Structure formats: structure tokens, C-alpha cells
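Hi Y.,

Following your request, here is the sequence exactly as I used it, all 453 residues.
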Amino acid sequence: MGVLDGAGPAGGLLVHGYKGVRFQNWAQTYSCNPEMYFQPSSPEEVREVLALARQQKKRVKVVGGGHSPSDIACTDGFMIHLGRMNRLLQVDLEKKQVTVEAGILLADLHPELDKHGLALSNLGAVSDVTVGGVIGSGTHNTGITHGILSTQVVALTLMTANGTILECSESNQEDVFQAARVHLGCLGVILTVTLQCVPRFHLHEVSFPSTLGEVLDHLDEHLHKSEYFRFLWFPHSDHVSVIYQDHTQKAPFSSSSWFWDYAIGYYVLEFLLWVSTFVPGLVGWINRVFFWLLFSRTKESCQVSHRMFTYECRFRQHVQDWAVPREKTKQVLLDLKAALEAQPKLVAHFPVEVRFTRADNILMSPCFQRDSCYLNIIMYRPYGKDVPRLDYWLTYETIMKKAGGRPHWAKAHNCTRKDFEKMYPAFPKFCAIRDKLDPAGMFLNAYLEKVFY
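Below is the corresponding structure, written out as C-alpha cells. Let me know if you'd prefer a different format.
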């Protein structure tokens, strides 16, 4: 691995960059070889990387935990990893707000919040991700009274392509703030983020079996019965696992059998999925068997919130995740079920995870101005082996587009600027802000060129 030292514009600090670094996302589905790889530890060092990029006319991408199952972070130019800018900077107990550097992992933030009796009100399924990354891609969880994670951001600082630092909030640089809360990595480098927290809390989870028809026919009842309601549908069947998560004063406990559910069960599953790559017709049978083995009985558990929200991703996977207007939930799921039944050669791994999120006013949020339902579909990669998925992907995307869907920014999709112009009322406003902050396109890459050109 080579090392390059490049003097800053004033000949002061040195920028330390590395050659020969290969970036690969967690699922090992996308990778790139950046020309130079930087790990700055301060805003001054970030500014020098940007100055060097301007001088050499290089593009720049910032990468966080690398969990995005797409090429949104890939580049052949300069790559900045903010892992050394990972401090908790300030705690305001009166306002219940914390300010952190954008490179801090959520997994490292949780214990720091615990110490102060604080927590984030909602989290995605993975915590090995940076704060700057999760807001940039519009990461979400579930709960119709809760927004995407970016709605918990009350202020941030952004370094633009020319090295200027903007302090943004609803009362300062408000337009930039509403763009930067889902920034796609194309506005500049997020340096710090101030998050609105809540008092530390525990969640009581109850999961129980149901059917797709029952859940869809009584969807509003489920949505209002549990604060963090979601459900898992097992394709090629009518089986559903309903999951309720709610605040509780109960002590931590679990009624699940860890040894079977999490030690043996998933190893067996991976082996069977590997076998199904040779005999695709087994997938429907596998889905039904594992519903019966792992999800056909009621289970309960209680944990501190961040442990309940997050879980371990056990298999590498290809993922699609689109948000549709909440009222289209029943239509899109029945359309997807009908499409699978009409095409026997089309196979879909379980589960289809269905989650719900409150509307917001963030310019490029998939939930912009509408309560939304997210439908997350996956195809596992057992033992790292790719499985045929493109026909399933195309079928799913066609259904979601017809229903007015918007793709998750961290996930792979086939949309272009023409699609986004129809999907997002604020798309022209976001483009104008991006053009002003980064007129030379320093922060673009192949993924973003499809979005903006």
C-alpha cells in the first residue's frame, strides 16, 4: 500500500493519503479502487483533502460503515473515511440533544447515550453505520408516528467543495438544512450532527403468526395498536409474522430459544438456500418450513431500545427497498404476490419486510410530504454465491413505480433523473442547492450521475 503526502494550499498541514486501498461494501456486492484513500481526523484535514482534489480536479466520496447495498459510495477518485472523526462533542441534558462528529458509529454512540440516560427514539436494523451515513441515505425503521432517522437531526455542519463550513438548522441556512438531512453524499462533507434524543427506554417485543390477508384487512388496527409495528411476509405462501414493539417498564427477558433460533436454525437455512441455487423450486418450500420452525409461535422479549431495534445481518444479500404511499400497501403486496404466483420460475427469498414511516419535509426523503410504507425485498447470497434475482427485481420495481414508489437511496435501483423528477416535488430545489454548493460536481460518482443527469 503506497502513501502520498500532499501539502495543503498554505504549505501547512500535510494530507496523508493511501494508494492501493480496495473498498468493498458489507454485502460484497459492490467495490471500487479509489485513486487515494484518506482518513482525516479534523475539519482542517478534510479541507486540505478538498483543496488537493480541486487542485488535481479529482472527485471525492465520503464513506461511512460501508453497509449500503449499492454503489452510492464508490469512486475511482478520492475517498474520505471519517472513522477518525468519531467523537461525542456535546451533551445538552436540558434539551436532550447531543452533538457528534459525523464519523461516529451508532454502535459506539449507544453506550455513550446510555451513560447520560438518553436514547434515539428510533433506529434502523444495523448500528455499524455512521451518523453522517445514515442521514445521507435516508435510513429508516418503522412506526407511523416516527419519521426516518434524519428527522431526529436538529442541526449539522457541512463543508462545501470550496472548504466553507456552513452551520445549518431550521433557523439558519434552512434550505440547505432540509437538503442536507438526506444529502446523498453530493452536497459536501458532513462534519457534525446534532441529534434530538429522548429519555433512555426499554421495548417489549411480541411477535406472532398471522396471514397476509388478515394483516392487510386490519392494517389500520395494527398500525394504531403498536408504536413500532411491522410485519414479515414469506413469499410463495400466505404466512406472516407480525411484530409489535412498545415502551415498557419490564426488566429484560426473552422467551425465544437462542440455541435453535439463532445458532442452529440459520446455519441450516444457509445450507438449504445454497442447495436451492441448484434447485430453485425449493425456495417456496424453504420459506414455508422456516416459517413453521422459527415464526409459527408467539414470542416475547424485552431489551433496552437500541438492542431491540438492531439485529445481526447473518447473510450477505442483495436488497431493494421502496417507499409507497401508505394507502397503497395492500395493493402493492397483493400485486407482488400475484406476480410470483403467475410466474412459477420467479423465486423470492423470505422475508418481505413491511414497515411504516411518518411524512416529513426533507427534500429528498422518500417520505417527503406523505406517510409511507416501505417494502424491503432480499435475495440472500449463501456462502457468497450469487443467485438469480434480476427478474424478481424488475417485477418488484414495476409494481412499485406504478404505485408511485420512491427507492431507498442506500439500495440498488434502476431509476434515472426522469424518474426522480416525477417522484420528488422538491427535486428541482435540491438540484439548485447542489449546483450552488458543488458547481464542479466534485462529490458526484456513477450512482449520482444517474440521479442528476
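The first strand starts at residue 3 and ends at 7.

Thanks again,
Q.
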